[in-house]
Amino acid sequence: MALNWTMLDSHSSPVPLPHELIIRTVSAAELTLIIPNAPPSSTSSSGGSGGEKKLVGSGKLWLTDARLIFVARDAGAKASGPNAFESLSIPLPSILSTKFEQPFFGQNFLGIEIKPVDEGGLTIGTKAEIRLVDKGLFEFVSVLEKTRERAIYMKRSSAEEEEGLPGYSTPMSAAGPSAASAVPDEAPPGYDAPSYHP
Fold this sequence. Notes:
Blueprint lengths: L1 E2 L18 E17 L12 E14 L2 E6 L14 E5 L3 E7 L7 E6 L12 E6 L4 H27 L35
Antiparallel strand pairs: 1-5, 2-3, 2-8, 3-4, 4-5, 6-7, 7-8
């Protein structure tokens, strides 16, 4: 969800968030990022024209209990070229959909639709394709889906806890409203009501 925003340590590994656990690491992955209606880049001649932008990178992939993180192999040396990027960090609840693709020709890949954030470098409709170089993809897809479902459940339950106020009910007696809701006849001590003269 955020392009080139992942905080990396001296070994080009992502710095974990507080209480974040790494579930799976994949040492050889390829990621293709397709950004529709990308704003014109500052590196293109004549200001660029915008339109669809396709970024490709090879590197490592981390699945944590909160995020899916990709770091390009040359992230420490600053990625170069018009279609290169350093990192991609996607909070699991921001993965809108996943699809395991098996093309007739070519390698299997995982297609992901991503919900962008403001100033994250991505636009609405951004998609990613993940290919694992030395491993089967099906097991990774299964673990990602289970972890994503848990992250969404945890986000929803924490939102319900924050928003859910306890319900209050007023006791009603058979004779009518309770004495607690009755208005007193006299003013509180130390209070002189202003007199009203029409």
